[in-house]
Design goal:
The chain has 4 helices and 9 strands; from the N terminus they run H-H-E-E-E-E-E-E-E-E-E-H-H. The protein is α+β, with helices and mostly antiparallel strands. Among the domains are: 124 residues, Immunoglobulins (Immunoglobulin-like, Sandwich); 52 residues. The longest helix has 50 residues.
């Protein structure tokens, strides 16, 4: 009895294994795999044809003003509609209407780009808009290269429908304090130059003020002397009139005296 039971169990297990093997063979047959791949390709083609024109705008890396040790924000935005903004940011035409992913690759000058937003966001319709941001920090002076890659994915898979990469470069300039061990010499020269300019301006202002004071004092002295000369000088024409009147009066006195003396001189001699 026990032997029969064992035999029946063995036969059942064998039938199950045989059924599983045949099912696996059917699923993994070359014809079935080829058919599934063809359907997948057709779906990708259909999804690509459904993409439409969109706009990618991103920060101009040259306008970031990268300085060693200081962080700058790099922004990017994907719009479902093509409408150039003219805001001064860089712009590029892309294909949207799917799940969009943005990646920023940075190199040079010890630069690091830390993302602060989700890598993938949906831009499915013309009114959709998605934004991304990275914290960009350079460690030393040099040239920085940034590569921004925009990818449109098929649904939530890793299958790519569209991809575009834009690259840009910028120079990381050293800060004033990190210019080198002799940077204080340049700073001192700049300070001296600034001080000389300020002293020149102050000296010019003082000289102009002193010149105005001297001109005012000379004018005041000349006006005072003119008034004194006018007070000391006699009025023209008054003295001659007094002299003429005096002479007339003297002439009258002499005439009277002559008439008084004339009877004596003209009397007949006795």
């Amino acid at each position: 009895m026990r032997r029969r039971t064992v035999m029946l169990v063995g036969i059942g297990v064998g039938l199950l294994l045989l059924f599983a093997a045949s099912t696996n063979y059917t699923l993994m047959s070359p014809d079935r795999s080829r058919e599934n791949q063809q359907e997948y390709i057709q779906e990708l083609d259909k999804a690509r044809r459904q993409l439409f024109r969109g706009l990618l705008t991103y920060s101009d890396v040259k306008a970031l003003g990268l300085v060693p040790g200081e962080s700058r924000w790099f922004h990017a935005q994907v719009n479902g509609d093509w409408h150039p903004t003219g805001s001064g940011d860089a712009e590029s035409e892309v294909r949207v209407g799917a799940q969009i992913g943005l990646r920023l690759h940075c190199s040079g000058a010890g630069v690091s780009c830390t993302p602060v937003s989700s890598e993938r966001q949906n831009v499915l319709a013309k009114h959709d808009m998605a934004t991304w941001a990275w914290n960009v920090t350079a460690k030393r002076p040099g040239t920085v290269s940034l590569a921004l890659t925009m990818t449109a994915y098929y649904r939530d898979t890793d299958s790519v429908l569209f991809e575009k990469t834009t690259t840009s470069q910028a120079t990381v300039t050293a800060a004033a304090d990190d210019a080198g061990p002799f940077s204080w010499v340049g700073s001192a020269l700049l300070w001296i130059k600034s001080a000389v300019v300020e002293l020149g301006v102050m000296a010019g202002a003082i000289a102009a003020t002193w010149g105005l004071y001297l001109a005012w004092r000379n004018r005041r002295d000349s006006v005072g002397e003119s008034e004194e000369d006018s007070a000391a000088q006699p009025v023209h024409g008054s003295e001659p009139r007094r002299t003429q009147a005096g002479a007339t009066q003297l002439g009258r006195s002499d005439g009277a005296q002559a008439r008084a003396a004339s009877p004596d001189d003209t009397s007949p001699s006795s």
